[in-house]
Design a protein that fits this description.
The protein has 16 helices and four strands. It is mainly α. Among the domains are: 46 residues, no CATH class; 219 residues, no CATH class. The strands form two sheets. The protein has a two-stranded antiparallel sheet with strand order 1-4. Strands 2-3 form a two-stranded antiparallel sheet. The N and C termini lie far apart (62 Å).
Length: 379
């Protein structure tokens, strides 16, 4: 018994020594099952699809930012019930300004963690930066702007030294930055001298970092508009690029919903700021730093090199990345951000003292980076 082959591609045998004629694509596709990314199906199913995906993530333990948000709500509820002043506009403004110093240090820690390494010296480096500015500006009468620049460069140099020993000499980052922690702490004590404290002038450049407020109500609301607009436009064009590339993307309705939720939060915060003194300069600077560093990490070749090194050093080396140079630059950035954070801390207490950079500052900065979503294992 014989069966007739009706496949279009086999109707005519190919001449000897030649490859068979290519199969007609539309014909070959008849009856085939096209693979579809399940994330696309979820979004096509609408709200019910998102509920299903949310349940799947909960079962898989992929909670994302939910624990952080719930923890924040619980903290607000508990402390708000214990102290009626906790949820006031004044306290919100003060907390926002106070967290900038630690936040700046945490930004530098993020870069180091992306390598899968750690920097234990950032607390001490921040103290050295504050002491450097205070001694140069107050004790020696140097111009504020020059003392400010030299203080930041001190942090950059400290980070570069750590990076050199790590990348070129081969000393583990944990060991070299632990040694840096001890060395820079001693160096700060030497800078401050016997008094141990140098008070800053109220009208100095550093002091104004945390004492200056944009009192016009339009400033806070204007910043809220800018934040929401940047978020929406960035998300919109990112989704357009993903759609063009054929990869999963968020529908426009989801982008609008996310932007609306952000707008509610942004305008509520702006209203609270305006109930006190206005928009703090420190918050504006911190938000600008976050936007710039996010752009560098996500949109530049340097950012891709950082992620590549965190994923596999050997693969990065084979891809032509200058591993040592990138490592040194990252530790230099960590030192720079530590110095900037130290200046904000000195501004908040209006002085540079022997306790600067000590205590739980280091752990708070590392915790901020990790809780914010940075993997401590690199990549």
């Amino acid at each position: 018994m014989t069966t007739e082959n009706t496949s279009p591609s086999l109707d005519k045998a190919a001449p000897a020594g030649q490859a068979p004629a290519p199969v007609d694509a539309p014909a070959a596709a008849d009856g085939a099952v096209t693979a579809v990314d399940p994330r696309l199906l979820v979004r096509e199913q609408g709200f019910g699809g998102y509920i299903t995906e949310f349940k799947r993530k909960i079962r898989a333990g992929d909670l994302g930012a939910i624990p952080v948000v719930l923890g924040l709500i619980i903290i607000w509820a508990i402390f708000g019930s214990l102290n009626s002043n906790f949820l006031t506009a004044e306290n919100l403004s003060n907390i926002s300004v106070a967290m900038v110093g630690t936040g700046m240090i945490a930004v530098g820690i993020v870069f180091v963690l992306l390598l899968g390494e750690i920097d234990l010296s950032v607390g001490s480096v921040s103290g050295v930066a504050g002491a450097t500015f205070a001694v140069l500006s107050v004790t020696h009468g140097m111009a504020d702007w020059l003392a400010f620049v030299l203080a930041i460069l001190t942090g950059t140099a400290a980070g570069a030294i750590h990076g050199f020993f790590f990348a070129r000499i081969g000393v583990p980052a944990f060991a070299v930055t632990l040694a840096g922690l001890l060395f820079w702490s001693g160096f700060m004590l030497q800078l401050l001298g016997d008094s141990g404290t140098v008070n800053l002038s109220a009208d100095s450049l550093v002091a104004k970092l945390t004492t200056y407020y944009f009192t016009d109500v339009a400033a806070a609301y204007g910043l809220a508009v800018v934040v929401v607009a940047v978020f929406f436009l960035t998300s919109f064009f990112e989704n357009r690029r993903r759609e063009a590339a054929g990869v999963p993307s968020r529908p426009l309705s989801e982008t609008i919903l996310r932007s609306a939720l952000l707008a509610v939060v942004a305008f509520v915060v702006a209203a609270l700021f305006n109930q006190y003194k206005g928009l703090p300069l420190a918050v504006v600077i911190f938000l600008a730093v976050l936007v710039i560093t996010d752009f560098v990490l996500r949109r530049t070749s340097y950012g891709r090199k950082v992620f590549a090194l965190g994923g596999s050093v050997e693969a990065s080396r084979r891809a032509g990345i200058n591993v040592a140079l990138v490592r040194i630059s990252i530790f230099s950035l960590a030192g720079t951000f530590a110095a900037v954070g130290g200046l904000f801390i000195a501004s908040k207490i209006a002085a540079a003292n022997q306790g600067a950079g000590s205590g739980d500052l280091l752990m708070n900065a590392i915790a901020a980076a990790v809780i914010g979503g940075t993997s401590p294992f690199g990549g």
